[in-house]
Amino acid sequence: MESAMEYLAQLGQTILTLARQFTFKDAIDVAIVTLLLYGVIKLVRETRAGQLVKGIILLVALFLISYQFDLMMLNAILRAFLSSGIVIVVILFQPEIRKALEQVGHSKVAQSLASAMATKDKEAGRAATRKAIDGVVDATQILQQLRMGALIVFERQTKLGEIVATGTVVEAAPSSQLIANIFFNKAPLHDGAMIIREGQIYAAGCILPLTSNVNVSAELGTRHRAAMGMSENSDAVVVIVSEETGQISLAMEGKFTRNYNRLTLRQALEEALLGASEEASGSKRILDKLGFGDRTSRKGG
């Protein structure tokens, strides 16, 4: 009994000593580690990575058991396996690690740093983007009337070089006539995505990754699933024109919205690509007067 009391007293004294030595720097250290662990748990939860984590924990437990009970052969095999643990983790969790790094790159802090380091003429870039928006909006109206499908990707911070490599580089001014011609159902490049980079039609006929979201509505076809996949894997803004219904939709940040017209599509693209501007605010006031203010927020399945 006395030994137990002495142990508790010693433990209490140790905790008090550590508490006195605990500084603000230590608090920051603990907070950062906590946030990282929370991020890892959030990333692997309800994904295939969660099952992989369980498997790794099981192997570590077996290794400890083999060491404790001197199971030499099992211990040697697990030791060889776990000695390359970092490489194995990187290989097994490559999709999750890539997704996490992309999310860090898409964060407001990273984008602010990128903007601060940018040396290009921002006003000229905004003018080019505004011209591209005009061309895309007008082209979607033509395609909608002709019941021709389209998939148009506005590149933002995340560079889409791998996607561009799957298509044909065009590098042309974004006129509505050219965009409509590319998606004409007899044109060689119509069956793929168009990439808009820095206000120019950079490539066409590109292949996009399909979404891995199992909750996406079964009514959506390959074009819509590709748009959703692109928005999940980058910060791109994707415009979709349905070949079956002529309906205009947007995919952005893994979310899908539909039922756009000329006014609401222009407003949504200006807000996403140019930010909150006077023109966007003016368009919103016009939309509110015409009764279209709520249509851009409708979620698609």
TrEMBL record:
Give yes or no: UniProt keyword ATP-binding.
Answer: yes
Specify the superkingdom.
Answer: Bacteria
The UniProt record lists the keyword Protein transport: no
Q: Which UniProt keywords apply?
A: ATP-binding, Cell membrane, Membrane, Nucleotide-binding, Nucleotidyltransferase, Transferase, Transmembrane, Transmembrane helix
List the GO molecular function terms: adenylate cyclase activity; ATP binding; diadenylate cyclase activity
Under Enzyme Commission nomenclature, its number is: 2.7.7.85
Offer one example of a GO biological process linked to this entry.
cAMP biosynthetic process
Provide the catalytic activity annotation: 2 ATP = 3',3'-c-di-AMP + 2 diphosphate
Ranges where the DAC domain occurs? 94-262
Q: What residue intervals traverse the membrane? A: 27-45, 52-70
Cited Pfam families? CdaA_N, DAC
The enzyme class is transferase
HAMAP family xrefs: DacA
Quaternary state and interactors: Probably a homodimer.
Q: Report the family membership.
A: Belongs to the adenylate cyclase family. DacA/CdaA subfamily.
Q: So what does this one do?
A: Catalyzes the condensation of 2 ATP molecules into cyclic di-AMP (c-di-AMP), a second messenger used to regulate differing processes in different bacteria.
Q: Could you identify this protein by its name?
A: Diadenylate cyclase
